[in-house]
Amino acid sequence: MTYRQTTEFFLYDWLNVESLNQRTRFADHSRETFDSVLDTCEKIARDKFAPFNRIADTEEPWFDGEKVHLPESSHAAARAFQESGMLAAAQDYEIGGMQLPCVVEMAANSFFSKAGIGIGGGGMLTSGNANLLMAHGTELQKQVFARNEFAGRFYGTMCLSEPQAGSSLSDVVTRATPDGSDFESDPFGPRYRLRGNKMWISNGEHELSENIIHLVLAKIPDAEGKLVPGTKGISLFIVPKKLVDAQGQLTGERNDVALAGLNHKLGYRGIPNTLLNFGEGKYPVRGSAGAIGYLVGKAGDGLRCMFHMMNEARIAVGLGAATLGYAGYEASLEYARNRPQGRPMGVGGKDAKQPQVPIIQHADVKRMLLAQKSYCEGAVALELYCARLVDELHTGDEAGAKEAHLLLEMLTPIAKSWPSEWCLEANSLAIQVLGGYGYTRDFPVEQYWRDNRLNMIHEGTHGIQALDLLGRKVVMDGGKGLALLASKMNGTIERAMAVPELAAHGNALAGALKAVGNATKSAWATGNPEEALANATPYLQAFGHTVLAWIWLDVALCARRQPESDLTQGKLAAARYFFHYELPKVPAWLKVVETRDDTCRSMDDAWF
Amino acid sequence: MTYRQTTEFFLYDWLNVESLNQRTRFADHSRETFDSVLDTCEKIARDKFAPFNRIADTEEPWFDGEKVHLPESSHAAARAFQESGMLAAAQDYEIGGMQLPCVVEMAANSFFSKAGIGIGGGGMLTSGNANLLMAHGTELQKQVFARNEFAGRFYGTMCLSEPQAGSSLSDVVTRATPDGSDFESDPFGPRYRLRGNKMWISNGEHELSENIIHLVLAKIPDAEGKLVPGTKGISLFIVPKKLVDAQGQLTGERNDVALAGLNHKLGYRGIPNTLLNFGEGKYPVRGSAGAIGYLVGKAGDGLRCMFHMMNEARIAVGLGAATLGYAGYEASLEYARNRPQGRPMGVGGKDAKQPQVPIIQHADVKRMLLAQKSYCEGAVALELYCARLVDELHTGDEAGAKEAHLLLEMLTPIAKSWPSEWCLEANSLAIQVLGGYGYTRDFPVEQYWRDNRLNMIHEGTHGIQALDLLGRKVVMDGGKGLALLASKMNGTIERAMAVPELAAHGNALAGALKAVGNATKSAWATGNPEEALANATPYLQAFGHTVLAWIWLDVALCARRQPESDLTQGKLAAARYFFHYELPKVPAWLKVVETRDDTCRSMDDAWF
């Protein structure tokens, strides 16, 4: 099966995405228009991304003191991506968008991440930045910044982390002070001067676009000049690299934002990752140091604005991890089909006089390929399911939107974390299938593995997703979200019980779901977050495997309803793999959660 | 604890290595002499290896058409290693050795692999090569080749794989034909001309030593000029890069061995990995093409000779994987102690007004550190246990040697595979502890992770170890090896049952051991290797975790007997981690083994 065939199966057969066309927003769409978007993206990815993925890795971004240089092929890929219109795919027609459902947009964009995740300027960041402005910006902010981002004229960044704070956003110390006495009369909104350092900023400096629009978290000092501790004091600002006028034209003024350095990474090398200095006076602007920034939304509301976009960003990260895994699966499948080595093991041993067979005939190679298929296709299905929920959130009726919101709250930590762990494992298996060749840079699999290792770190580490899930999501509103998710799973289980071939899977999932429920209660039995959360990560792993088993069972039900084909057989086999080889791991992870095991948290520093 | 402290605890307190000094061979040794070897190696590793580990990675070996170049720091490290005498550490005094026990030799060498696994010319290969000649070579072969290798004047390689054969040695097609009518009268033994290509040859070309001694597997054609299919037709040859006379002096003749290319790898970059052409005529020698090689042992006995050294080589690979894991553990522990970020989660949430705490105070960071400790120290303990068995094999009484042989047969697949999988996972956790910093090349952890990924591939892949274990080792001699290993484990379990604190671990291990035994029987219940071996890898994983639980329980018993200290508390905590977080995974792996699950082996190519 090709990735395209599997994607279409998920979109049309499983998620019934065509039914969205009955909604006003998508009324002009049809399977044909969706397919043509997929065609376009698949083609650009094949022609402009895939052939240059290794170059993006070997020719790392470099800084000549003024400009950051990327390979010409990355510029060409970025141009082709811009021209595809995908930056504005989900936007209204009237601002140049396609009014595409999120689920189709994500599926179409996944061709790019599969072909070259570090190439082309990271469109997701730019459209995410612009989407945030569409939700929280003023009319002029939308008009000038968001629309030029959707058009690809400007690119966007998200500036959250700082060297001393990392994931701990409450410790942000970038300061925003009013810029002059007329600071409140700027057409772009209250105008501030920002001073501080931002770390880990993807695409913080490059020449791919006319301008770079930084969205920056900073604190406005109180009357005594002090920063408010915690996240409540954080505000959000638009800080363009080059200042623009109300018509969106560059004024010729360079803002006081300077590249302090590029990070040299293990993977994802096509994307320049930067340390940025705001307002240190390297580029004094309008007569003084300090980066000019315009407040977005209300002061103190910065984190809420930023997190508005977090669900979609996390789904996108998960889908990127899934497609990286899938790329390795494809490469190792091709290798296994073409590499002759060894002979089948029969009752009488091996017959060395026979010719060698392609290694795909060996059971252990099949196991490694099927594991990859099960991880990566399962992950793609999960991400598309979540993207479909985003559509429900935006265009469903009130009850549907409410339900979608709650399900997304529950599933986002899994959508972010699960593929980043298991599709990385898939990439390792792809290396293993290729053996020594997989360990060389002559084949792409080692790069996929390096690239994918980022995904457990950025957009909230694994540990942070785990705290979010067990510390907030499963307990919020008295456990309403968990109850809703369980009811969805139970629906699938019930339908599976009616299909003899899938009934055992249904039973197994019911058992896992019950175990997760019990572990959730046991973890919180003492009400002490320190005890409950000490094993949040194993809980996240168990929860994730349970969710994926549910996704696979639901996909299997869909495959079972169709006429038998190689595709449906493959999906049923991948589901079976997941139930037989993966789901049994759940009790092992839950054991320490249930018992509130304190082995780790009681570990003394001196004993290490 | 430092690595040195832990190593000494394993050597002296747990394995009671000093008792070896009662044996004649080691009579001149004492804890003082052992410690002084450890001192020397630790110091050289710290001064000559560790500071240059990144350089060995970034300045890859390169070929100017004639010579392979390595960084000067790698030459200096190789010189220091040679001068340490460690190449001949285990050899007799009379040939310049130290008569060091294998377990002390391995422990001492582990400082080098921890400091820079790709630096210094891979002494293990050279001494392994020479050891093989000591076991199977003629007096002159030992005198000229082995002794110069032990002295570091010559370096060695092992040439097994070929491009078309990979792990399938029965498909080796390198041909060895008699070199002239007087081929049997060469003082070095029967002289042949070899023609063929060898792939994945570590240290196949370099300037670190005066000469390179290749040990090459090749086939001698039968009377009709045909190669015998299968492994029985394989013979072993000494093929020096430069020919030498019976006094070991270079004759000035270059042998017909040519570098065809260097592999560019994901890691382990300090070691040149080569494709070698034997006998293609690039360097005609004595008037004709064909690489001159001298038969070692009997014709057709090549694989047996080669595998004679395999146990020690595989233990060394496992120990290398363990020390790479440990290096990451050290780096991430240091980072976690020094990096302030976030605040403890209390009943009332977090107090943002408090200063940030070092991340080692967070439970999830402690979990990641303790997991690393448990994986890596456990792996080191296992490897030293195996090395101690090698000493028993060589210097024990008859019964002891026989038992050691059988235990080594059982444990070698685990010693090779387990650290290569789980200390790689440790390296990934080290990256995770460092977060974004861990993903940059400014910190060493990403390199350890890349380096360690090799270990599941070379010296027999994971899949091959699994087939060896379930296909041969556990069934040989009617299951004698498994029974012996089980009796050793039961001894530990019995002792643990008498210690209240460890009794639960003892019960858990007994359960796992029973499950492994049952799964072994079920796998072979039909007697069909295809069915039995389809899930050999999950079996290997379950078996490995059971073995490591046993090792940890035995180590815990030793720690428990000592006065309480940070070291003993740490060992007990790491054991507890293994029993609570890791051992419960065993049933998940065994499930498919017990049921001879055919999901993978029945997977149709077209369904992928």
Automatic annotation (TrEMBL), chains A, B:
<keyword id="KW-0285">Flavoprotein</keyword>
<dbReference type="Pfam" id="PF02770">
    <property type="entry name" value="Acyl-CoA_dh_M"/>
</dbReference>
<keyword id="KW-0274">FAD</keyword>
<dbReference type="InterPro" id="IPR052166">
    <property type="entry name" value="Diverse_Acyl-CoA_DH"/>
</dbReference>
<dbReference type="InterPro" id="IPR046373">
    <property type="entry name" value="Acyl-CoA_Oxase/DH_mid-dom_sf"/>
</dbReference>
<dbReference type="InterPro" id="IPR009100">
    <property type="entry name" value="AcylCoA_DH/oxidase_NM_dom_sf"/>
</dbReference>
<dbReference type="InterPro" id="IPR009075">
    <property type="entry name" value="AcylCo_DH/oxidase_C"/>
</dbReference>
<dbReference type="InterPro" id="IPR037069">
    <property type="entry name" value="AcylCoA_DH/ox_N_sf"/>
</dbReference>
<feature type="domain" description="Acyl-CoA dehydrogenase/oxidase C-terminal">
    <location>
        <begin position="352"/>
        <end position="468"/>
    </location>
</feature>
<protein>
    <submittedName>
        <fullName>Acyl-CoA dehydrogenase</fullName>
    </submittedName>
</protein>
<dbReference type="GO" id="GO:0016627">
    <property type="term" value="F:oxidoreductase activity, acting on the CH-CH group of donors"/>
</dbReference>
<comment type="similarity">
    <text>Belongs to the acyl-CoA dehydrogenase family.</text>
</comment>
<feature type="domain" description="Acetyl-CoA dehydrogenase-like C-terminal">
    <location>
        <begin position="487"/>
        <end position="604"/>
    </location>
</feature>
<dbReference type="Pfam" id="PF12806">
    <property type="entry name" value="Acyl-CoA_dh_C"/>
</dbReference>
<dbReference type="InterPro" id="IPR006091">
    <property type="entry name" value="Acyl-CoA_Oxase/DH_mid-dom"/>
</dbReference>
<dbReference type="GO" id="GO:0050660">
    <property type="term" value="F:flavin adenine dinucleotide binding"/>
</dbReference>
<dbReference type="InterPro" id="IPR036250">
    <property type="entry name" value="AcylCo_DH-like_C"/>
</dbReference>
<feature type="domain" description="Acyl-CoA oxidase/dehydrogenase middle">
    <location>
        <begin position="158"/>
        <end position="275"/>
    </location>
</feature>
<dbReference type="Pfam" id="PF00441">
    <property type="entry name" value="Acyl-CoA_dh_1"/>
</dbReference>
<dbReference type="InterPro" id="IPR025878">
    <property type="entry name" value="Acyl-CoA_dh-like_C_dom"/>
</dbReference>
